[in-house]
Design goal:
Number of helices: 19
Radius of gyration: 26 Å
Distance between the termini: 52 Å
Shape: elongated
Largest sheet: 7 strands, parallel
Strand content: 15-25%
Bound molecules: 5'-O-[(L-methionyl)-sulphamoyl]adenosine
Length: about 525
């Protein structure tokens, strides 16, 4: 047996200043689909998510709510962020909070190493800071304010005024890594994906890198700088380290060697932190840089990035309460090209839910199982000689499996689902053309009827396996109805890369009826 491939995947860790909206859930779902795919394919998979709890943004929110920052973070993590994982059915292996001891100790160790190795110095600094971004803004993201903010400088992302900060800070000599970073992007063209993100990062680094302020003295909600307790660590420097403190850096060498380097999926607004600052930090510490950094686009509302601070946030359960978590997952992964911006609309969700999930997939499954019940007493029939149409379905199953796997490898989730959906459409077409109901009327066609239903049922077996990472609940129901749990074992352990191999569900398997997988939703049930 060859060694399994390893796949360590991370989401960004989420700020706990507020409850999640569907933009955050989008990042989580995309990562979950990738993680489930790799895990089911047998890769040594580890999927990490968590929360980013230090810094001024959290401190200010907590203070405004009259509680200590740690208390605020505990409240939000327990009442909002961990429950989100259930709402959208996330299969994370670990959840890191930056206020945990394992993280704080790892950060201190990392900082001390950089300091001891001469990558850090003390200096003076004055620049415009955005608390929303938790970042000193580069010139390209500073705009002149309008309306209420006339005469002020505002952040291009948050449209809120920037604050002029002047402090004595510790600096990380990031500028020293400019050439090595450019070399990295050149040597590994898929290090930053998609290509548009890569180009943006290269252009940014080519302009020249400045050193990075990595400590703050004006407030104390952060991890103390180990050699100078009057400073706390800059929140991004602290947060980025979660990817290694959660996987054993400085505490469990075997776990760290097994997991690191990882793959990071991030929103494009935080690409620079992951594709420039983070690899520079790792280089300085003598550690491997990440395998890939993939930047996805934004969910837009009214043409702007959805955000709670702009009052355009939609809570994930507003969608899942009506449509269910599978539909949430399917819709966002299918309707938006991963790597590009996309607009959410209730009409589009409603339309795709009915056309693709209820009619396209759900109906196919219930029809095929109902015909098995009617014509073969719910026992998987034995296929006879395969004709051209049957062979075409068999070949398509193999082809879409390979194509989808290749797309997942490239983070092209929407393409992978589109590949698999070719099989959904082809099976619907096949049933329509072969007309089992007509064959059933002619005893001489009994064998043909068996062949057609065996192919359609085997097609459902392949679909259940291929779609399990995307719609885990519906495919599990289908799996049980196919009698596959007994015949083939647990769905989540089915080797995904072999899902397209034909003839896996044995003839004679006892089938069951299937409840409606995606019940109709009336327009007025939507919010
Ligand atoms: N805490 C930092 C990340 C630190 S990672 C070491 C952060 N947190 S965040 O909560 O503001 O954002 C987390 C993720 O949610 C980011 O990838 C961000 O792009 C994503 N999204 C927030 N709003 C979004 C949309 N409207 N659309 C898509 N993704 C969005 O940044």
């Amino acid at each position: 047996m060859p060694e399994p491939q390893k796949f360590f995947l991370t989401t960004p860790i989420f700020y706990v200043n507020d409850a999640p909206h569907i933009g955050h859930a989008y990042t989580e779902v995309a990562c979950d689909v990738l993680a489930r795919w790799h895990r089911q394919a047998g890769d040594d998979t580890w999927f990490l998510t968590g929360t980013d709890e230090h810094g001024q943004k959290i401190l200010r929110t907590a203070t405004a709510n009259g509680v200590a920052p740690k208390e605020w973070a505990d409240r939000l993590v327990e009442s909002a962020w961990k429950p989100l994982l259930n709402t959208i059915n996330i299969s994370n292996d670990d959840f890191i909070r930056t206020t945990e001891a394992r993280h704080e100790q790892g950060v201190a160790k990392f900082l001390q190493k950089l300091y001891d190795d001469g990558h850090v110095y003390a200096g003076e600094f004055e620049a415009l800071y955005c608390v929303g971004c938790e970042e000193f803004k580069p010139k390209s993201e500073i705009l002149d304010g309008e309306g209420a903010f006339e005469g002020e400088k505002v952040c291009a992302i948050h449209s809120k005024p920037l604050e002029l900060l002047q402090e004595k800070n510790y600096f990380f000599k990031m500028s020293a890594f400019q050439e090595r970073l450019l070399q990295l992007y050149q040597d590994r063209p898929d290090f930053v994906q998609p290509a548009s993100a890569r180009n943006e990062v290269i252009a940014f680094v080519q302009q020249g890198l400045e050193d990075l302020s990595i400590s703050r003295t004006s407030f104390d909600w952060g991890i103390p700088i180990p050699w100078d307790n009057s400073h706390v660590t800059y929140v991004w420097f602290d947060a980025l380290l979660n990817y290694i403190t959660a996987t054993g850096y400085g505490s469990d060498d075997a776990q760290f060697a097994r997991r690191w380097p990882g793959n990071h999926v991030v929103g494009k607004d935080i690409l620079r932190f992951h594709a420039v600052i983070w690899p520079a930090m790792l280089m300085a510490a003598g550690l491997d840089v990440p395998e890939h950094v993939f930047a996805h686009g934004w969910l837009l509302v009214g043409g702007e990035k959805m955000s709670k601070s702009k009052l355009t946030g939609i809570a994930p359960n507003e969608i899942t309460d009506t449509f269910g978590s599978d539909a949430f997952r399917y819709y966002f992964m299918r309707a938006i090209s991963f790597g590009h911006d996309g607009s959410f609309s209730w009409e589009d969700l409603h339309a795709r839910y009915h056309a693709e999930l209820a009619n396209g997939f759900g109906n196919l499954a219930s029809r095929v199982l109902a015909m098995n019940a009617k014509y073969f007493g719910s026992v998987m029939p034995t296929a006879g000689e395969l004709l051209t149409a049957d062979n075409a379905i068999r070949d398509l199953a193999a082809n879409v499996t390979a194509a989808a796997d290749a797309h997942i490898e490239k983070f092209a989730i929407h393409e992978a689902i589109a590949d698999v959906w070719k099989l959904v459409d082809a099976l619907n077409h096949y049933v329509q053309e072969q007309q089992p109901w007509a064959l059933s009327k002619d005893e001489a066609q009994r064998d043909r009827l068996a062949t057609v239903l065996a192919a359609a049922t085997e097609g459902l077996r392949a679909l259940a396996e291929l779609l399990h990472p995307v719609i885990p609940l519906a495919t599990q129901k289908l799996w049980v109805a196919l009698g596959a749990e007994q015949a083939l074992g647990e769905l989540s352990s089915r080797p995904l890369r072999e899902a397209g191999a034909w003839g896996q569900l044995p003839a004679g398997t006892e089938l069951q009826s299937l409840e409606v997988l995606f019940p109709r939703v009336e327009a007025e049930e939507q919010s």
